[in-house]
Write a structure and sequence with these properties.
This protein has strands at residues 4-6, 10-12, 18-24, 34-39, 46-51, 57-59, 67-72, 77-82, 91-98, 102-104, 108-112. By secondary structure, it is mainly beta. Strands 2, 4, 5, 6, 9, 10 and 11 form a seven-stranded mixed sheet that branches.
């Protein structure tokens, strides 16, 4: 099992930026594909961004060009840099990875509002 801890989110104005981080436990982090999901009120949880062990990335169409996922294997940490934020980006954001089972962080609230 991989223990995941996200950084605190926050309130951001539309057009603003915010970077989330997620620290993972264990010694196999560098081999893991890491994901960021989000869940808005009344909606299903959706995959936002993925980075594999080689650093290849994929993004949901709704965030492509605005969000960047990255990783620092020396720190066992994955990041989600979010730029040009929109009110529709408001959600609880979760860090996740699959290692024998799906592991989730506790989630962190991101609110985009003026």
């Amino acid at each position: 099992q991989v223990h995941l801890v996200e950084s605190k989110g926050g309130l951001v104005q539309p057009g603003g930026s915010l970077t989330l981080s997620c620290a993972a436990s264990g010694s196999i982090f560098s081999m893991l594909t890491m994901d960021w999901y989000r869940q808005a009120p009344g909606k299903q949880r959706e995959l936002v961004a993925t980075i594999n062990s080689s650093g290849a990335t994929n993004y949901a169409g709704s965030v492509k060009g605005r969000f960047t996922i990255s990783r620092d294997n020396a720190k066992n940490t994955v990041y989600l840099q979010m730029n040009s934020l929109k009110p529709e980006d408001t959600a609880v954001y979760y860090c996740s990875t699959y290692s024998y089972s799906r592991n989730w962080g506790q989630g962190t609230q991101v609110t985009v509002s003026s």
